[in-house]
Design goal:
The protein is mainly beta. The protein contains no helices and eleven strands. The strands form two sheets. Strands 2, 4, 5, 6, 9, 10 and 11 form a seven-stranded mixed β-sheet that branches. A four-stranded antiparallel β-sheet has the order 1-3-8-7, with no helix packed on it. The termini are far apart.
Length: 126
């Protein structure tokens, strides 16, 4: 089993920044791909970004490209999401997820991830 714990959410004004963290514990050797998803009220959970442990490759949703940056600290088993130029439409619960398969390409589907964190709320005020 893998346990994922997110932190770093909060309330920020539009144009501001936040950095989310996701710490993995347990069978961390199986966390080949680490991703971030988000879910706004009344909407489906959607892909935000993902990073591969094997080659560090990344993928972003078009809505966050150029504003968000995903990174990973292998020694700490932690993945980060730096969010800049935040917009009110970024308001959502942000979830960390891990995929046990190392196969590329990087995946963006909710059903393609094996473990999930409890989520952290990000609220962007206008």
């Amino acid at each position: 089993q893998v346990k994922l714990v997110e932190s770093g959410g909060g309330l920020v004004q539009a144009g501001g920044s936040l950095r989310l963290s996701c710490a993995a514990s347990g069978r961390t050797f199986s966390t080949y791909h680490m991703g971030w998803f988000r879910q706004a009220p009344g909407k489906e959970r959607e892909f935000v970004s993902v990073i591969s442990r094997s080659d560090g490759s990344t993928k972003y949703a078009e809505s966050v490209k150029g504003r968000f940056t995903i990174s990973r600290d292998a020694a700490k088993n932690t993945v980060y999401l730096q969010m800049n130029s935040l917009k009110p439409e970024d308001t959502a619960v942000y979830y960390c997820a891990s995929r046990a398969s190392p196969l590329l390409p990087l995946r963006i589907g909710v059903n393609e991830y094996d473990y999930w964190g409890q989520g952290t709320q990000v609220t962007v005020s206008s």
